[in-house]
Design brief:
By secondary structure, the chain is α+β, with helices and mostly antiparallel strands. It is built from 16 helices and 13 strands. The termini are far apart. It is a multi-pass membrane protein.
């Protein structure tokens, strides 16, 4: 009996020495993506960083975070090896991958994935219908702000030129009253009338005044031709998001380009799907090579119009919250979860799963999401990109005026 007690005591002491000898600091790999992990002052912050902090308190470990070297989440490359964060975990370069890693069967074969800490699916991000974002100043959209400022300067300059020419020319003076018909007010009114193709008499009698008037009218005709051309083309060719309600609508149209993140689990979903609609979408993207290299690029192309970005609904909701001119379709397919990844056989998996479940039941995950996902847009809805008057056109029109 005494011998058994001694053996148990020695075993306990030996196990404790081993536990203290092992370095408890975990090497954590992540990827920079808003709002999961963002650099700020040399440190990382975001949803995943807060979640990692809460989990570490429950599981009782310390950690050191580094950004993944190649900037990928993790997929099999041309050589048949895993890259990205999954590759670092497989090769033993990281003990834990903390990021919005989609839980897939392919990844679960090579690494141990935790219980999902967030549910997501695949949806479509596109620009709102132009009629939804039109405001009281929609008539200003054919030209950009620089063009309107240049037009204002040209208007004031021409009116001032008319005023000076009329003052210097004896033909514009009335002999009996010695008054000049082209005062500053009439010069502004006459120039504005020409800008709207409406005569605002009396007209100049001097040759120099008529030359200035003709130059202004030719400039006005050139400008209005550009204005109505831009206005008509932008209204007729601007793609409408109201015609795309889901993936079947997207597959059945050919006016709007669409794509997803290259090498992502979203692309793998369409590639491996047996659904004919999803297969057509994949074949279109593969044929047109309409992939994007980052989430930011996909959002930017969607904002520019005539492009639908296919991605995970959680990330698309964040883009919609930041950019009022964007919208996400209601259809969500391929529901999946975001998980952490660790090496197969890691002793932390069970405790990580338990910690994630406890945080979920305590409402901590929902609190973190409300903290990092804005409810309303942070930026005002801005008019979409139009076919503005190009620099060369502006230069030529101003040259016509000042010649």
């Amino acid at each position: 009996m005494l011998l058994n007690v001694v053996v148990l005591f020695l075993t306990f002491v030996f196990d404790m020495r081993i536990c203290h000898a092992v370095d408890p600091e975990l090497r954590v790999t992540t990827i920079e993506q808003e709002p999961y992990a963002m650099s700020k002052g040399g440190e990382l912050e975001g949803f995943c960083m807060d979640l990692l902090h809460e989990v570490s308190k429950k599981v009782d470990f310390t950690y050191k975070v580094h950004l993944v070297k190649d900037g990928f989440y993790g997929r099999v490359d041309e050589s048949g090896r895993w890259n990205g964060m999954i590759g670092e975990v497989v090769r033993g370069e990281a003990d834990l991958a903390v990021a919005p890693l989609t839980l897939t069967a392919a990844r679960a074969r090579v690494v141990a994935m935790t219980k999902p800490f967030m549910q997501t699916g695949i949806s479509i991000l596109l620009r709102k219908d132009s009629t939804e974002t039109q405001g009281s100043f929609t008539f200003l959209t054919p030209f950009n702000s620089q063009t309107w400022i240049s037009l204002l300067v040209a208007y004031v300059g021409t009116a001032a030129c008319m005023f000076l020419v009329a003052r210097l020319s004896p033909c514009e003076w009335v002999p009996q009253s010695e008054k000049n018909k082209f005062g500053i007010v009439h010069s502004l009114w006459y120039t504005a009338g020409g800008l709207t193709l409406q005569g605002a008499g009396p007209h100049p009698k001097s040759l120099s005044g008529r030359v200035v008037s003709c130059c202004w009218w030719f400039f006005t005709l050139f400008l209005l031709a550009h204005y109505f051309t831009n206005l008509t083309s932008s209204n007729s060719t601007q793609p409408s998001s109201s015609t795309v309600k889901g993936f079947e609508d997207l597959a059945n149209q050919d006016k709007m380009e669409y794509g997803c993140l290259a090498g992502s689990s979203t692309l793998a979903f369409f590639k491996n799907s047996n659904n004919m609609v999803y297969r057509r979408i994949y074949e279109h993207m593969e044929r047109r090579k309409s992939f994007v290299t980052s989430m930011d690029e996909g959002v930017r192309r969607a904002k520019e119009g005539n492009y639908a970005f296919i991605g995970e609904s959680v990330s698309l909701d964040l883009a919609v919250a930041h950019h009022c001119e964007l919208t996400r379709t209601h259809e969500v397919i391929g529901m999946r979860g975001y998980s952490f990844a660790a090496p197969i056989g890691s002793p932390f998996i069970d405790t990580l799963n338990l910690a994630i479940l406890e945080l979920s039941e305590a409402g901590e995950l929902e609190y973190l999401r409300s903290k990092w996902w804005p409810v309303t847009a942070r930026t005002r809805a801005r008019p979409g990109p139009r076919r503005d008057l190009h620099t060369a056109s502006k230069g030529s029109s101003c040259s016509c005026l000042w010649a």
